[in-house]
Design brief:
Order of helices and strands: HHHHHHHEEH
Number of helices: 8
Shape: globular
Number of domains: 1
Number of strands: 2
Mean pLDDT: 87
Strand content: under 5%
Length: 226
């Protein structure tokens, strides 16, 4: 007979379920008020990482509920370990990038809006909390900090390719974010109030690497305290 799950084991699916619901709500609110064409909505890093986090939380919640029903500890398949880390680290960059680079450019009305608080703050932080508390890489599945670079690196390639193909974003910009716009900043410029896209990308990748190391460190500390 399956043993009664402890409150700690119940907290895991509860956290994943909350993250999933808030992620869906955040995307629904963002989509409803966006000034973008429907397809363009999915070309922004914030929305892409939120969608990936939604899919991840749905999968993890399914594993947790299956384990609870069977009365055994939850286990994440080995093939999902690296994607889980990369998606979580990637959406944490959404929080850090917005807070450090974009927040000063935003109107106060948007900063206090439900969609901003969800997609840029609550969903990324809840995803990070879930990884810190419940990620347990299996034997031989050591996660490396550099694997957290996948999301921003692939996104940079996508955006630069679209920009070179002539795709335009909000208000005709050549890129979705000012620091990725070579028409505005150049590629390798520095000085006169401008910094080239190449330097911005290096800064963002360095920030992502720092976030990845922090995420792994907090997860390791949480597991050692168990």
């Amino acid at each position: 007979m399956p043993e009664r799950p402890s409150p700690a084991r119940l907290f895991s699916p509860a956290l994943k379920g909350l993250s999933l619901l808030l992620g869906i709500l955040g995307q629904a609110l963002t989509f409803s008020r966006a000034r973008l064409a429907p397809g363009a909505h999915f070309l922004y890093y914030t929305n892409l990482t939120n969608l990936l986090a939604i899919a991840l939380m749905a999968a993890l919640l399914a594993f947790d509920l299956r384990a609870l029903k069977a009365g055994r500890p939850a286990a994440v398949p080995g093939w999902l370990q690296v994607p889980r880390f990369a998606i979580t680290a990637g959406i944490l960059l959404t929080f850090a990038r917005f807070s450090l680079l974009l927040l000063p450019r935003m109107e106060a009305s948007y900063l206090l809006s439900a969609d901003n608080l969800l997609v840029h703050n609550l969903v990324p932080l809840l995803a990070g909390l879930d990884y810190v508390l419940f990620a347990e890489p299996g034997p031989g599945k050591d996660i490396r900090a550099w694997q957290g670079l996948w999301a921003p690196a692939l996104y940079a390639v996508l955006v630069l390719a679209l920009s070179l193909m002539g795709v335009r974003f909000l208000e005709g910009a050549a890129a979705p974010y000012f620091f990725m716009d070579p028409a505005q900043n150049g590629w390798f410029s520095a000085g006169e109030g401008r910094l080239g896209v190449a330097w911005w990308l290096l800064i963002i990748l360095a920030l992502q690497l720092a976030l990845s190391r922090l995420l792994l460190g907090l997860n390791k500390s949480a597991r050692l305290r168990e």
